[in-house]
Amino acid sequence: MPNTVLVVEDEENLLAALTYNLGREGYTVLRAEDGQAALTLARRHSPDLIILDVMLPELDGLEVCRILRRESEVPIMMLTAKGEEIDRVVGLELGADDYVTKPFSTRELMVRVRNMLRRTSAGPAATHDAPDVLAAGDLVIDAVSHTVRRDGEPVSCTPREFDLLSLLVANRGRALSRDQILERLWGHDYIGDTRTVDVHVRWLREKIEPDPASPRRIVTVRGFGYRFDG
Q1: How far apart are CA 204 and CA 3, in angstroms?
Q2: Rounded mean pLDDT of 142-159?
Q3: Which tens digits make up the pLDDT trace of 22-44?
Q4: At a CB cut-off of 8 Å and minimum separation 6, what does 189 contact?
Q5: Count of CB atoms within 10 A of residue 70's CB?
Q6: How far apart are CA 176 and CA 167, in angstroms?
Q7: How many folded domains does the chain comprise?
Q8: Which residues does 213 contact at the CB level (< 8 Å), separation at least 6?
């Protein structure tokens, strides 16, 4: 069964070009020209990937990304205007998985689409043969039930947050670079920004740190990455 890609773009020529090239690659393509239509189609069809322009009528792409990320883990690739660094940073903050700057090469975009879908279909990343249950202080991570508990109370984690926490705890005391984390959880062919690791770490700290502003569990190793001290 072919993967379904939702393309959200209000520029008619670009929307047509993306639709044509994705269809030629064998994907089922859904189209939306504004943010509200994008939300409706995403909820109705549960696409495997969303290509989302930042500048859209009705709701802009950043707001659409924010709403979708609350509801699902669908991979989101954002399209940003050349030089709009703030859009890329905010997109990552809101949960986008990748971004492409306009103008872009169609070939490069198709490679990124294939890579993102391949990573998604591969399922959650393994964490160095970690045991089924990991414990660190009042944290209990159960790989079988895919749950996290803190002091006996459930902690709501997205699949990516769960994998990241499992990886860090399984390597307790060992510093992992951002590139190592990306390779383990996003795949060696990930093309996006290492700042996506920082965003996910910050979300995790909000959930498991007594004081997220002064983290004592997930510690930053300056200029390198992160270490779980527990």
Answers
A1: 30
A2: 88
A3: 999 999 999 999 999 999 999 99
A4: 115, 118, 119
A5: 10
A6: 9
A7: 2
A8: none
Number of Cβ within a 10 Å radius of residue 131: 10
Task: Among 121, 153, 169, give the residue marking a domain's end.
Answer: 121
Q: Which two structure tokens, joined as six digits, stand for 190?
A: 């990930």
212: its two tokens: 């997220």
Check whether the bond before 103 is cis (ω within 30° of 0). yes
Q: Say what the pTM is.
A: 0.68
User: Which residue, 15, 64, 21, is CA-closest to 43?
Assistant: 64
Q: What is the mean pLDDT of residues 94-118?
A: 85
pLDDT for res 13: 95
Assess whether 156 and 62 both reside in one domain: no
Q: For residues 221 and 51, what is the distance between their CA atoms, to the nearest angstrom? A: 33
Domain that holds residue 52: 4-121
Q: Are strands 139-142 and 147-150 parallel, antiparallel or unpaired?
A: antiparallel
β pairing state of 147-150 and 153-155? antiparallel
**Cβ contacts of 3 within 8 Å, gap of 6 or more:** 27, 28, 48, 49, 117
